[in-house]
Each structure stands twice: as structure tokens, then as C-alpha cells.
Amino acid sequence: MTVDAKKLIKRIAKEKFNGLGIKQKGHSGLWYYNVDYYLILIEFQPSSGDNGTYLNVGVDFLWYPKDFFGFQFGYRLSNFRRFIDEKQFENEVEELCDLAISKVDHYKNMFRDRNLVADKLLEIHKDKSNDWERFAIGLSFALAGQNSKAIDYLKKLTGDNYEQDWEFERSRIATDYIKAIETGTFSTFLADTVDTTMKLMRVN
């Protein structure tokens, strides 16, 4: 009898993640842990040409309205674990789940103190040429109440010298965040944006 690797993964993941606040997205191979303004994503990613799984773990910030999941940093944690036989693969998946749990704890501790989020992101994003990195760093400075630094980063994303619709949309949102920072309503604006994003992504 052919064993369904996906069903085996889901069964073991449910057992391993039970009671830890890690939730499955529908019936997919994607799981998430909700931490205030970001999700820690756990993905058991299959291969199109083989029976087994990769493990991806990373962070997805909720401070930009969207209806999809994305690894804004972090990603592949393991090489491909091939299904050879049921017992072997059960052991492999249990090992991957333990690895995922450890990484979830790592990310939770990394961003536990809002005052240090910007420093952590600056360590990760050593090359600040990426506009999405600037967006994240700007908002992380706002989390810490370092408003002038936050505005400096976010202002680099505003204007009308863009070509793509999503670039104009990001510019608009960055401008809204700047206004919220300047008027002292950043916390409320962020909370509303996170709530909107969670509803679009259908997570809780």
C-alpha cells in the first residue's frame, strides 16, 4: 500500500504542535504562529518530482495589507527528506517538527522586545538597498518610538517616481504611516492594519 506522505506529515505535525499555539492553514502544508504584528510560518514543502518534504521556517510581518503569505526573511531549514519507508519518514518528520519548534522559539525571542526589533533587522538586512527592507526597518524604528529614524526610512519609499501599481500602493501606505507617526496615532494605525491583514489572510 502506498503511504501518503502529506497525510503522515499532517498527523505528526498536529501531534507535535498540539498545545503550542501553532495552527494549520486549512488543510495545507503551511502552519503559522501568530505573534502580535507578525506570523512565524512553518511550511512542509513537497517536491514535484519526489515523495517527501523540505522544511521552511520564516517570518511574515502583518504591517502591510495583503491576502497572501510570504517569507520576508528566513526560509529553507532542511534539505529534502525523501520518503523511503513509513518508519524512516515518521522519524524524519518528527525531527523536522522539533527543528521548526526550536526556530519558532528563536524568532519569538528575537522580536520579544519591540525596542530591539530595528537593531535585529539591521543585522539581518546589512544591504539596505531593498525597498521592502527599508519599509520593515522604518516600521521597526516606529515600534521602538524612534520616530525620526522611522520617518527617514519611510520617506525613501514615498513619491511618484514608480512604474508598478504595487509600488504606488506601498508609497501610499508608507505616507499613511508617516502621518500616523507625526500625529501620535501610530500604535492605533498599526493595530488596525494588522487586523485588516489578518482578515485578508484569514488567520487568527
Account of the protein in words:
The chain has 204 residues and is of the alpha+beta class. It is 50% helix and 18% strand. It contains 7 helices and 6 strands, in the order αββββββαααααα. Strands 1, 2, 3, 4, 5 and 6 form a 6-stranded antiparallel β-sheet that branches. Helix 1 packs across helix 2 and helix 6 packs antiparallel against helix 7. The longest helix is centred in the middle third of the chain and has 25 residues. It is elongated.
So how many helices? 7
Could you describe the largest sheet, including whether it forms a barrel?
Answer: 6 strands, antiparallel
Give unreliable regions as ranges.
none
Number-wise, the strands total: 6
What is the radius of gyration computed over CA atoms, rounded to a whole number of angstroms?
19 Å
What is the mean pLDDT?
93
Listing every helix as H and every strand as E from the N terminus to the C terminus, the arrangement reads HEEEEEEHHHHHH
Quick overview of this protein structure:
50% of the residues lie in helices and 18% in strands.
Blueprint of the fold:
Layout lengths: L4 H13 L4 E3 L5 E6 L2 E10 L2 E12 L11 E4 L4 E2 L3 H25 L6 H8 L6 H13 L3 H9 L9 H18 L3 H16 L3
Antiparallel strand pairs: 1-2, 2-3, 3-4, 4-5, 4-6
What tags apply to this protein structure?
elongated; 204 residues; 50% helix; 7 helices; alpha+beta; 6-stranded antiparallel β-sheet; 18% strand
